[in-house]
Amino acid sequence: MNTRLIASSALASVMAMGLLSAAHAAEDNGKEKCYGIAKAGSNDCANLSGSHSCAGQSKNAMGVDEWNYVAKGTCAKIGGKTVEEAKAAMKK
């Protein structure tokens, strides 16, 4: 097997684990995901529909499946949706 392929796969796995840890840390620090408020190109991570898996890749502003972190308790006040509300809106 190609050692470069093994090394790059291992590095990608380590980086992915770090990104997941950062996402959980933000939620633990008084923040929550708020759907439907992200401007085009300024989402915080992967969207619900699965069309991309990285921050800053949203194509449309205020897409119901795109999200940003906000302070806990402020999402509804700024017109955003919870993950359950966003999933329900996507089914319509």
Continuous helix count: 2
Fraction in beta strands = 5-15%
Mean pLDDT: 82
Helical/strand content category: alpha+beta
- How many domain units? 1
Largest sheet: 2 strands, antiparallel
Between the first and last Cα atoms, what is the distance in angstroms? 47 Å
What Rg, in angstroms, do the CA atoms define?
15 Å
**Shape, please?**
globular
Biggest sheet strand line-up: 1-2
* SSE series: HEEH
The assembly state of the depicted protein chains is: single chain
What is the total tally of β strands? 2
Q: Helical content, roughly?
A: 25-40%
How would you describe this structure to a colleague?
The chain is 38% helix and 11% strand. The protein is α+β, with helices and mostly antiparallel strands and 92 residues long. The model has no long low-confidence stretch (mean pLDDT 82).
Notable features of this structure?
92 residues, alpha+beta, two-stranded antiparallel sheet, globular
Helices, strands, pairings?
Elements (H helix, E strand, L loop, with lengths): L2 H26 L2 E5 L31 E5 L11 H9 L1
Antiparallel strand pairs: 1-2
In short:
38% of the residues lie in helices and 11% in strands. The chain is α+β, with helices and mostly antiparallel strands.
